[in-house]
Write a structure and sequence with these properties.
This protein has about 575 residues and is an alpha/beta fold. The chain is about 35% helix and about 20% strand. It contains 18 helices and 20 strands. Strands 1-12-9-8-5-4-3-2 form an eight-stranded parallel sheet. Strands 13, 14, 15, 16, 17, 18, 19 and 20 form an eight-stranded mixed sheet that branches. Strands 6-7 form a two-stranded antiparallel sheet. Helix 1 crosses helix 3, helix 3 runs parallel beside helix 5 and helix 10 packs across helix 11.
Length: about 575
Amino acid sequence: MIAEDRCVVLDGGVATELQRHRSLVEDDDLWGTWALYRAPRAVLEVHRTYAATGCHVISTDTWSILSAPEIGSGSASRLVEAQHWMDIARTGVRLARQAVDEAGRTGECAVAFAIAEEANSPERRETLELLTQVLADDPPDLILMETMTLIREPRTFETIELLLETGLPVWLSFRRCRHGVCGVQGQHWGPPEGDLFGRAARRFEEMGVGALLINCLPVEHVPGMISWLRDFTKLPLGVYPNLGDYGGREWRFDDLIGPAEYATLARGWRDEGAQIIGGCCGVTPEHVLALVTDLAETKPGRRRPLIDERPLVEPDRAAAELWRDDRGRSLYPLPFPDLAVEEGVFVPTTGSYLVWKSLFTSGVGEGLSCIDVGCGCGILAVQLALNGAERVHAIDIDRNAVANTLANAFRNGVSDRVTGEAVNFFHWEPRERFDLVVASLYQMPVDPYEEPTGHRPLDYWGRNLIDHFIRLVPSMLAPGGTAFLMQLSIIGQAQTEALLAEYGLAARVVDYSFFPFEPVFDANRTQIERVEQLSDAYHIEVADEDVMVAYLLEITRIEPAAPRPA
């Protein structure tokens, strides 16, 4: 047909037809292929419907078959355990072949074994080799490796060589447009690659690939691709775009282009030189029937359409109005301090960033004397100095952390106002008072049966540092001064309030954020649960994910009530 300039028409979206008409639950891990396990009769019915349109290629429902051996949990795992993936691959070919025969199209309609780009994965190399043995026993008419994106040297070419060794024709299809790799909804992934893809097309031809196509991209991204590829290769070229909209799990078919309109678009692709035309996700048998009818007497053209190249142009960054805060400061990019975190120094956490955000947003500290307790790399001390603090004193038990803070102060041009001191916080007595005190301290309930680690004593309630901090606040604060303290929900509020009251202090929550459990918290999960059972401590569970709340407390002295007049 290609030699005679007749248009080869592919089928449409098998997986989306299964979704559209049969209300079968899709499985994200085995897009489309799940139906070969769960509903093979439905697959056969879809193949029959496409074969009856008069199309010339039926693609098997095996797009994600190479993922099947690696599925480890959920409903998909149970399907895979019930039937071996090699048998499912054979079933895919058999059902497509059966549909062609029952439609009376034997010898007129080829069966293409479809696989996805995952064939390029080095982890699936052995699975792909096993698949080629399956295809040797139950051969389709051709292999269609589709929805590919990047040209990965040398892996892509090694994979193609392996497929060509089967002796079957190999067709390749990429999700590409003139502006580079193209997403399912038309989004471009990165900049254009010049003629890299075109040069790869030339190499595909030299290797013996049978055809080169583009697929699963919106119709508006198709024009210009065929004529551009023709500059590089004499391979048969084809297109089969998608219709509708992918919603993250299922395909949506609102405002779908009708069969007649789709055939009109296809005539344009044919005029540009497309020799193979069909449909991907969302393209129905009705659309394919329109292609068969409208393209039957057409010849491939040489038209070169005018292409809008504006997506290739870098946006004018200078013309963009910068996002600013209420104080007129630019927020894009965010003026975050230039920080280096030396090896072994405590890395800022979500809680540290919460305190930093408050300091940056409020600009607090201007003209004040400040202290950063547990300074780490200096994220808070440096920001206070950038806010215009008269002086910031940074303390930490780790002298490397203090040195790191001083180095970061130098990086940000505020070293003249930042001092540092390595101290054991539990033995430290303030020698002066400060207008502003900030602290983002380590808080972790520790199992008493565990061995102590590092400098921190065993801490059943996770409150050792924060409780000692509260006890020292009265001796750290100057008259009218304020302290900002980050506290996690997994150590409870009641003890904090009791200590504050005991030391003549009051606190209010000025901000909060969510703090996901990191590996170190997971390692102490048992003790965290004990503390939560014995106190008002808590965390939140969302979709099997554990999240605590980081609160930012503003602490001030309780001023005695003024005496009533006599």
